[in-house]
Amino acid sequence: MNQLVEITERQIGEWDKYKRVNFFNQLSGVRTPFLIGTRSNDEIDNLAIFNSVVHIGANPPLLGFVMRPTTVERHTYNNIKGSKVLSMNLVHKEILDKAHQTSAKYPSEQSEFEAVGLSVLRGLESVPYVKESNVSLQLGFVEEHKIKNGTILLVCEIKKVYVNAKYWSDKEDLDFGKMKTVGVSGLYNYYTLESLKRLDHV
What we know:
- This protein is α+β, with helices and mostly antiparallel strands.
- It contains 5 helices and 11 strands; from the N terminus they run H-H-E-E-E-E-H-E-H-H-E-E-E-E-E-E.
């Protein structure tokens, strides 16, 4: 039998902020990080990495993601509420370092695209996409739900999907292993993904 390590509420209370945040962020497992692209009313492109994107429904196609509390300025949140549109861009191995760097604090007048060296692909309604991404989504803001800890769940509807032609066939599923898509656990631990098996629908 596996030996269990008990971590008590008292022990957790003694951890510093970043150890606590990283630990609890890891407990939901490995997730796929996305770069969310938005544009401000001043026409400044914004780009930020998120590891909290979740599937909500397929009809209509909805995704959600969690924003940290707006007790400080949140450029992504402000831009979405202003323009009602955004992009989500899948992160892969070749752009991982640049993608992670978008989590640094930049002033609102600084475009993270320029700061980290990623290219803008302009979409409809001036939505900025990451040109280097293999899967990019155009979404419209639908609604938000405030959680009691101050975080906000934003729900958005997928309006358009762009897929690198090398990885798309109507007869096949998307192969995230071939795309070199990465996974993330916690604040800064990244993993590679590979296809394990495809089981029959039941």
